[in-house]
Design brief:
It is built from 13 helices and 21 strands. The protein is an alpha/beta fold. Strands 8, 9, 10, 11, 12, 13, 14, 15, 16, 17, 18, 19, 20 and 21 form a 14-stranded mixed β-sheet that branches. Helix 7 runs parallel beside helix 9 and helix 11 runs parallel beside helix 12. The longest helix has 18 residues.
Length: 520
């Protein structure tokens, strides 16, 4: 008898993190597991992977998804004792996930009915416990259903029912399982899940304590998280060399460092000042001459960011790529790394005079002061871009701009302030002033640069942290507080991000759009 090929008998069971390719199977699985409850939407699951992919698990058996669980991290002390599932999950989107929180909060476990009894749920709970240990979290908290309570509602209160289950006089498929897995009941919350009719909307709030947790002496609740920003209202005037341009830029970065700034922000296409000594009168040819200074421009700001320990939003610069000219804003981090954002909406003037081509991707960048986005001038006038950036975690949107008259400037300012209000985000505009009499199509400039906030009691009056005097060469320095922003998003007078009618409208970003190649 020949040796048996054991592989033909194998059926692999794997517990792993959820991936994009699992979403369709998960949407089908929930229909089987929760037939009488409102199901996840695809955008919920996509949001889970965006905000906390490490906290999403599936069980795969013979290449079929048969179970899953979802979770997020919170500072549980910040939530009301009688919170609901919608409160703790931001209506299922978990955009309130706090990477610096203390508690892993489990929001769902589902196991295919045909595979119950195989300890699938236990495996998922163990995955959560391993994650809590790995991330050094104090505990795991869950709002557990009590789906058999509807059978006893005439005989006992929810508290009495829970006590009977704890005493093992009554079996409840969820509560009994959670107790076996080491969870203790903290309290009972009414109206937790409005569509959970079997539990009569009640849920047991339960906790598993991580005995391996080690308190960190530097870890504490933040009372503030200030980020200092210096905005440069840059004077456009004739210069005679690139070295003269470097001296002006270094002067401002030095000033930003003296003020202890985290960011120094330059205006849009302020590098066109270099055209004043290029002696090229045809605008379309002048921008290509200007693009020849791209490497020197990048080397200069990379050096200055590291030397002065300041993150620099380097305004924007005309760059030639594949024989096309793009308007690109660069982020020079103080650790020496570089990012870039293409201008997405090109104005008629840019297209006609300079032949500028549009970019195709909205970027959100990680910095040592949290996530930020850059939207160049005209882009801030399209609300979809800011909404998408904030959905991806941006807390500050920097807007380098260049406008030649007051009407153009007010379009940028009004839209930046509108984006701050409707997205509960800080916006920063930095513009050019002065004139370049020797440069075609860059004759005059108008600006009043500023730093703007949402409009609520926590923020500055009129939503303005600081602004420059109009049309003079100067700077404005101001602090934006990311902790105040976080709290206001959760409990402000109005909460635009949470109160959106997602049942009526949604924003679909075409991520399959071809993106211009990164060459930095």
């Amino acid at each position: 008898m020949s040796k048996l090929d054991l592989s033909q008998f194998e059926k692999k069971l794997i517990v792993r993190n959820t991936q994009d390719g699992d979403l369709e199977q998960l949407l089908e699985l929930q229909k089987v597991c929760f037939q009488n409850m409102e199901p996840w939407k695809r955008e919920h699951l996509e949001s889970h992977l965006t905000h906390f992919p490490e906290g999403q698990f599936v069980v795969e058996y013979d290449k079929e998804i048969i179970g899953s669980c979802s979770s997020l991290i919170v500072n549980f002390d910040e939530y009301d004792d009688k919170h609901t599932w919608d409160d703790i999950t931001d209506e299922g989107y978990i955009s309130n996930h706090d990477p610096e929180g203390y508690n892993l909060y489990g929001i769902e476990v589902m196991v295919h009915p045909e595979f119950r009894g195989m300890k699938i749920g236990r495996r998922l709970y163990e995955a959560r416990k391993d994650l809590a240990r790995e991330l050094n979290l104090k505990s795991i908290i869950i709002g557990g259903r009590i789906p058999n309570y509807h059978k006893y509602e005439q005989e006992m209160t929810p508290r009495e029912y829970v006590e009977e289950v704890r005493a093992q006089n009554i079996f409840d498929p969820v509560l009994t399982f959670q107790i076996i897995n080491g969870f203790t009941v903290m309290r009972i919350n009414p109206d937790y899940l409005p569509d959970d009719q079997m539990s009569l909307k009640y849920a047991t709030l339960m906790e598993w304590n991580n005995i391996d947790y080690r308190a960190r002496t530097k870890r504490h609740f933040k009372t503030s998280y200030p980020v200092r920003i210096m905005v440069i209202q840059y004077m456009m005037k004739k210069i005679d060399s690139f070295e003269e341009f470097v001296k002006q830029c270094e002067y401002y970065v030095d000033v930003a460092a003296d003020y202890g700034s985290d960011f120094a922000v330059f205006p849009e296409i302020f590098t066109t000042q270099l055209m004043s000594f290029l002696e090229e009168k045809v605008p379309s040819k002048a921008v290509r001459r200007l693009s020849e200074y791209t490497e020197e421009y990048i080397e200069m700001f990379t050096h200055l960011a590291v030397k002065y320990n300041v993150n620099i939003v380097g305004g924007s610069h005309f760059v030639e790529e594949d024989d096309h000219i793009y308007n690109i804003s660069y982020l020079f981090r103080r650790d020496g790394t570089i990012e870039k954002q293409y201008k997405i909406h090109v104005t008629p003037n840019e297209r006609t005079w300079w032949g500028i081509q549009p970019g195709d991707a909205v970027k959100v960048f990680d910095t040592d002061c949290g996530k930020i986005a850059i939207q160049i001038c005209y882009d801030i006038q399209f609300p979809e871009l800011a909404r998408y950036a904030v959905d991806q975690g941006a807390n500050i949107i920097f807007v380098p701009f260049c406008t030649d008259d007051r009407q153009g400037y007010l379009r940028v300012r009004y839209c930046a302030q509108a984006r701050a209000v409707e997205n509960q985000v800080y916006t920063v505009i930095a513009g050019t002033v002065g004139n370049l009499t020797h440069v075609e199509n860059m004759d005059i400039q108008y600006a009043q640069s500023g730093i703007f906030t949402p409009s609520d009691f926590e923020f500055a009056r009129d939503g303005v942290i600081g602004e420059c005097n109009p049309n003079i060469e100067t700077v404005v320095v101001g602090d934006v507080d990311l902790e105040i922003l976080r709290r206001q998003r959760k409990s402000g007078t109005v909460r635009q991000l949470r109160d959106r009618r997602r049942d009526l409208f949604e924003l679909n970003y075409r991520v399959d759009t071809e993106v211009k190649p990164e060459r930095t």
